UniProtKB/TrEMBL annotation:
The keyword Oxidoreductase does not apply. Keywords: Lipid droplet. Belongs to the perilipin family. One of its GO terms (biological process) is lipid storage. The lineage of its organism: Eukaryota, Metazoa, Chordata, Craniata, Vertebrata. It comes from Nyctibius bracteatus. Transmembrane segments: none annotated. Its main location: other. The gene is Plin3_0. GO terms for cellular component: cytosol; lipid droplet. It is found in: Lipid droplet. This is PLIN3 protein.
């Protein structure tokens, strides 16, 4: 999970969502109250679940470690094959806009000629 969270694409997307969430909460008092209540509910459920799940996680720890290692190797290979994962969202959007603009210009030139 940490490795996925540290991918540039994922971390920049999370930052964007977090900024939008905070801005929306700040701008809209009704939404803020709903979000605050939801956050408290999630925190309570997480805390209650953590104590119940801990014994199961302890028993499964060797299996989780093996799965984590396997997933880590898979993510490394995925990162090699998809360099897009190492770019921030705003750069991907910018690159896409440039590509689309270029394609539209090419299409206009083709139609004109």
């Amino acid at each position: 999970v940490n490795q996925v969270a540290n991918l540039t694409l994922v971390s920049s997307a999370c930052d964007m969502v977090s900024t939008a969430y905070a801005s929306t909460k700040e701008s809209h008092p009704y939404i803020r109250s709903v979000c605050d209540a939801a956050e408290k509910g999630v925190k309570s459920v997480t805390e209650a679940t953590a104590s119940c799940v801990q014994p199961v996680l302890t028993a499964l720890e060797p299996h989780v470690a093996a799965a984590s290692e396997y997933a880590s190797k898979g993510l490394d290979k995925l990162g090699e094959k998809l360099p897009l994962l190492q770019k921030p969202v705003d750069q991907i959007i910018s690159d896409t806009e440039e590509l689309m603009s270029s394609r539209v210009a090419d299409a206009k030139d083709a139609v004109s000629s």
